[in-house]
Fold this sequence. Notes:
mainly alpha
Amino acid sequence: MADSTDIFERLKQDHDDHRALLDKLAETHGESEERKDLLEQFTREVKSHAAAEEQALYSTMLRKPPTTDETRHSVAEHHELNEALNDLAATDMSSSAWMQKFKQLDHDYRHHINEEEEDHFPDFAEHLNKDDVEHMREVFDRRKKEEKADAEVTPKKKSEAKE
Ligand SMILES: [Fe+2]
Ligand SMILES: [Fe+2]
């Protein structure tokens, strides 16, 4: 077991930024510039975080049989999260449906990051060696930057997403 404090603290830092953006979004109203800007910021930030987290952390954890179930669970949630973000972007911002969908996403995403922080990260830490930790720390920052440059808001209704 290597000291993985650094990589997990880095991921938690992002999660705290995401919580702050969710708090701000909850205060927005109708089809405002503020809501548009914050949603774009949140979407790009969360999509790139989740992708880099998969490439740095979850790809490593998939190679550790004791944590495979937790890893699969989280990656499946990332997929659902992407669909929910796309669905929200395809929903009329001035409708009450938008706020309803936002509240569901807010609830589900907070659940996801709380579960990572409280359950998964401490379990993962027990299976990491020094090389894993160094690899993850290097890969996460590099990939997040690259993913963020590519991340986009892609409006797509959930029903279409399932076809
Ligand atoms: Fe995640
Ligand atoms: Fe995360």
